[in-house]
């Protein structure tokens, strides 16, 4: 099977080039976690933080075109994104794909999808994710308390059994 030719630049590098060209201040906030062997994004979905006086602060998820919808969906279920947006931060998915007419040279093209709190679908997804996470945390806490109570009851029963055996 023939290997696909590497493009040379990552989506993050392409995005940085655009930000630099447009005069933005930016910082890559995604990092490699050597212990877990994974790349970790800020708040689970932000690769680049960028700011510009005329636009504000934006968190950018940079990806290849084929994974745009998967990255959008991943961000929509990230509960920390709601806090980011409610705090005044903006969020966008930037995806890169080679596009062009058949039999012509393909050109790397940027697709930008902003997430807005005013967009009801975005807001509903983020709120649902936050509610789910809060429920999971509450359920885990209840299970922990139940486990503690069960362990305490078992200890008490074991002590009572030991006393009755000695008596």
What report would you give on this structure?
It is a single chain. By secondary structure, the chain is α+β, with helices and mostly antiparallel strands. Helices cover 45% and strands 26% of the residues. It has 4 helices and 7 strands, in the order H-E-E-E-E-E-H-H-E-E-H. The protein has a 5-stranded mixed β-sheet with strand order 1-4-5-6-7, with helices on both faces. Strand 6 (90-99) and strand 7 (107-115) form a beta hairpin. Helix 3 crosses helix 4. The radius of gyration is 24 Å and the shape is elongated. It starts with 10 loop residues before the first helix and ends with a helix.
Low-pLDDT windows of residues: none
CA radius of gyration: 24 Å
Principal-axes shape call:
elongated
Largest sheet: 5 strands, mixed
Number of DSSP helical runs? 4
Beta-strand share of residues: 25-35%
Class from secondary-structure proportions: alpha+beta
């Amino acid at each position: 099977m023939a290997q696909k030719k590497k493009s040379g630049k990552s989506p993050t590098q392409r995005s940085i080039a655009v930000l630099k060209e447009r005069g933005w201040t930016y910082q890559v906030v995604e990092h490699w976690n050597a212990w877990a062997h994974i790349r970790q994004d800020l708040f689970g979905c932000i690769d680049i933080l960028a700011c510009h006086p005329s636009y504000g602060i934006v968190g950018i998820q940079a990806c290849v075109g084929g994974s745009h919808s998967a990255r959008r969906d991943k961000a929509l279920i990230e509960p920390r994104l709601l806090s980011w947006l409610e705090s005044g931060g903006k969020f966008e998915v930037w995806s890169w794909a080679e596009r062009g007419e058949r039999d012509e040279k393909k050109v790397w093209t940027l697709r930008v999808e902003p997430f807005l709190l005013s967009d009801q679908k975005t807001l509903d997804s983020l709120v649902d994710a936050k509610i789910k996470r809060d429920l999971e945390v509450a359920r885990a806490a209840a299970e922990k308390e139940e486990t503690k109570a069960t362990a305490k009851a078992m200890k008490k029963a074991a002590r009572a059994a030991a006393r009755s055996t000695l008596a």
